Amino acid sequence: MYKKLIAQGAEAKLFLEEDNILKNRFRKTYRLQELDNKLRGSRTRREAKVLEKLATINFPAPKLIRDDERENIAMEKLNGKLIKDALNDSGYKNMCAEIGKKIAILHNNSIIHGDLTTSNMILSKEIYFIDFGLSFFSDKAEDKAVDLHLLKEALESKHYRIWEECFKCALEAYKKDADNSHETLKRLEAVEKRGRYRAKKGS
Ligand SMILES: Nc1ncnc2c1ncn2[C@@H]1O[C@H](COP(=O)(O)OP(=O)(O)OP(=O)(O)O)[C@@H](O)[C@H]1O
Ligand SMILES: [Mg+2]
To answer: Where a domain ends, among 31, 61, 76?
Structure first.
């Protein structure tokens, strides 16, 4: 079957295969082979499992088509712009509020995304989330807070002119919908202090 390479990240190659996306986590030669096989397998299975769960709650994410439990996932192709590119347009406040609301849905279903960047969201009819290879199931305030903190860092580095407004809108929407948001946001403050502390120590 003809496959066109459409993206290559650090971990995976993405191919267009008819109307689907094939995500292949390729071998990393610098890793010990046994460890590499383990990591690629666990991320592939994890992503497949989370996509299946998301379909049951009607969360906007690509539908899983198949996975080989080792290194390949086939999923529905989403049409639209990456949020990374769309966020410069007008309307970024509404987009960020939608992002916050959707993170609340994930967290209320005990799903931590693990890599909340604007390259992992696609604006189609609504905002879809992708790239669940680092996701896991947890109800801990700490895990939710770190998830939000990663979004903040991603906004700060890629959208430095508007990131503060963006994060504020996302958090406000999150607060409204997320269970135990008070505890999570308190934890977020602690995570951020810790981050600053680490940065100071490292400098
Ligand atoms: N279902 C999809 N529909 C349309 N485009 C997609 C889809 N999945 C991925 N893409 C495109 O491919 C890019 C890379 O995909 P993805 O984020 O899943 O991989 P990655 O960042 O390399 O993976 P990982 O972090 O798991 O190693 C995305 O930023 C997006 O542009
Ligand atoms: Mg990605």
So the answer is: 76
> What CATH number is associated with residue 122?
1.10.510.10
Quickly count: other Cβ atoms within 10 Å of residue 11's Cβ: 16
Whole-number Å distance, alpha carbon 130 to ligand 1 midpoint, is 7
Neighbours of 44 (CB within 10 A): 22
In terms of Cα–Cα distance, which of 28, 25, 108 is closest to 70?
A: 25
> Exactly one of 36, 67, 85, 115 is catalytic; which is it?
115
Mean pLDDT for back-to-back runs of 10 residues, the chain (203 residues):
87 94 95 94 97 98 97 97 90 97 98 97 97 97 97 95 96 98 97 70 35
> 72 and 97: one domain?
no
Q: What single letter denotes the amino acid at residue 167?
A: F
For atom 11 of ligand 1, the residue with the nearest CA is 7
Model's pTM, two decimal places?
A: 0.94
Residue 7 β-bridge partners: 14
